[in-house]
Amino acid sequence: MIGYEGNKNVVSSRVREARIRLNLSQGEVAAQLQVLGINIDQQMLSRIEHNLRLVTDFELVGLAYVLKVSVYWLLSGYAWEDSIQRGLDSFQEVREE
Question: Residue 77: how many CB atoms within 10 A of its CB?
Fold first, then answer.
């Protein structure tokens, strides 16, 4: 199995956070994903949220769409605008050294 220190994905906590913020059950999210043609059921989503299942790239895009967040946010936890500012700050620090 592929994993890093026992982790199967990096999005588990953010998937759960976004789902709860939208007041959706795991079953409701799974149903919306299935409408998009992504074969994830409630048990599979539970395994994703508990960091016990890998997430494919097309599943990640579907999760972002259903949960109304960006793929970037799912992967990093930062809003796109925050990531740009962090990048600029890092660049400035390197230039000052």
Answer: 14
CA 3 to centroid of chain Cα atoms: 16
Task: Output the pTM of the full model.
Answer: 0.78
- Could you tell me the two tokens for 2? 């592929």
> Averaged in consecutive runs of 10 residues, what is the pLDDT profile of the chain (97 residues)?
72 94 97 96 97 95 93 79 58 57
The CA-atom distances, in angstroms, between 38 and each of 58, 77, 89 are: 8, 23, 38
Interatomic CA distance for residues 69 and 56, integer angstroms: 17
Number of Cβ within 10 Å of residue 38's Cβ equals 19
Alpha helices in the chain (DSSP H): 12-21, 26-35, 42-49, 57-67, 71-76, 80-96
